[in-house]
Amino acid sequence: MNVEEFRAGLRAWLDDNDLTPGPDHTLGGHMRQFARVSRALYAAGWMRYGWAEAVGGLGGPAVLRAIVGEEVVGRRLAEPGPYSMLEVLAPTMIDYAPAELAARMVPRLLSGAEHWCQGFSEPGSGSDLASLTTRAVADGDNWIVNGQKVWTSFAQFSTRCVLLTRTAPGHDGITAFFVDLDTPGITIRPLRTMHGVDEFCEVYYDDVVVPATRMLGRPGDGWRLAMDLLPYERSTCFWQRIAYLYARFDELIAQAREPDESALGAAYLALHMLRCRSRDTQHRLRDGERLGPDTSIDKVLLATAEQQLYDTVRDLLPGTLELDDTPWRPEYLYSRAATIYGGTAEIQRNIIARRLLDLGKE
Ligand SMILES: Cc1cc2nc3c(=O)[nH]c(=O)nc-3n(C[C@H](O)[C@H](O)[C@H](O)COP(=O)(O)OP(=O)(O)OC[C@H]3O[C@@H](n4cnc5c(N)ncnc54)[C@H](O)[C@@H]3O)c2cc1C
């Protein structure tokens, strides 16, 4: 399908089908709104383009789903955070889950019937993810999981989790599972962030029984799965976040009483550079290229542009952004997390230095 025709058709459909969010601006409200939008777009077919027919899709290049994200999030019909989980977790399921499981589960995510989450980080394992200690021990046809995860975004709203566990020492001893979060032994405790939202959770696993059929890949494939997933978290899901940032940039211009053209120009340039880079990444994915450490560049550009935009908001709008009760405040505070989630800015620069520029370990 021609990309511009696709975009025009989608725009016309969105104009005709009012999916404007209601007045509930809580995180729960955002999750329900995302489910509502996904349901409507899936029923009309839009949410299925760019995904394989084997998992409920209608085929076509991945760039089609980037366009759906751009239009939906750019119009502020859904928030970029919840939306990004789709782009991060569905490709992993397609690549690693048994075909029957992916065929059964991925449509539930695409159609908004379920939310899923990503259980990688632990209290002692963030940047050094390979040190994770949540254990899975084989027991007949099951695995028994014990341990604790932290910063699991949207776990309290999720039905299932892509979970990394340790089944043996070392990088080759990490194994991934697709876990139903209503399994006995799982306790989910939301954590309040500094921007006042319970966005992520501590998740405790106490003797949780997971069927072996829920393993993603084979025992020991977990590190490879993580290395394949993280490039999505550091790139493709940004396309719709960029649309959101452009919309917020337009709003800043509308609200700034004394616009400083040089600050606005610098913020715009950072956004534009990010969008150019991201376009290139979307096209490489469309052409069937495997995404890898090069997506750390997208992540550094995203974090830089997002923080620069909100610094400019703080500088140009009247009042004290950190203290005033406006929608800009939580956004400004959340932008500080852009150099942390998906791997910190320091870790991205290490990857760029070592794996792209071949500068060695020191
Ligand atoms: C908004 C948000 C959402 C998140 N969602 C999820 C989620 O859904 N699922 C999930 O599993 N995790 C999630 N995370 C966790 C995230 O992946 C980790 O916070 C991140 O990987 C950093 O790990 P850490 O917090 O343990 O920090 P640490 O690894 O302890 O790092 C602390 C500081 O030390 C620096 N540092 C560490 N090692 C090095 C090094 N080798 N060289 C240079 N500097 C170094 C870091 O850059 C950082 O500044 C989320 C985080 C945030 C902020």
From TrEMBL:
Q: Which residues form the Acyl-CoA dehydrogenase/oxidase C-terminal domain?
A: 220-357
Q: Name one GO molecular function term.
A: oxidoreductase activity, acting on the CH-CH group of donors
The record, for InterPro entries, names: Acyl-CoA_Oxase/DH_mid-dom, Acyl-CoA_Oxase/DH_mid-dom_sf, AcylCo_DH-like_C, AcylCo_DH/oxidase_C, AcylCoA_DH/ox_N_sf, AcylCoA_DH/oxidase_NM_dom_sf, Mycobact_Acyl-CoA_DH
Q: Which domain of life is it from?
A: Bacteria
Q: Where is the Acyl-CoA oxidase/dehydrogenase middle domain?
A: 117-208
Instruction: Give the CC-aspect GO terms.
Output: plasma membrane
One matching Pfam family: Acyl-CoA_dh_1
Q: Which cofactor does it need?
A: FAD
Alphabetic keyword roster: FAD, Flavoprotein, Oxidoreductase
The Swiss-Prot or TrEMBL record describes its family as follows:
Belongs to the acyl-CoA dehydrogenase family.
**Would you tell me the protein name for this molecule?**
Acyl-CoA dehydrogenase
Q: Which organism is it from?
A: Mycobacterium helveticum
**Classification of source organism:** Bacteria, Bacillati, Actinomycetota, Actinomycetes, Mycobacteriales
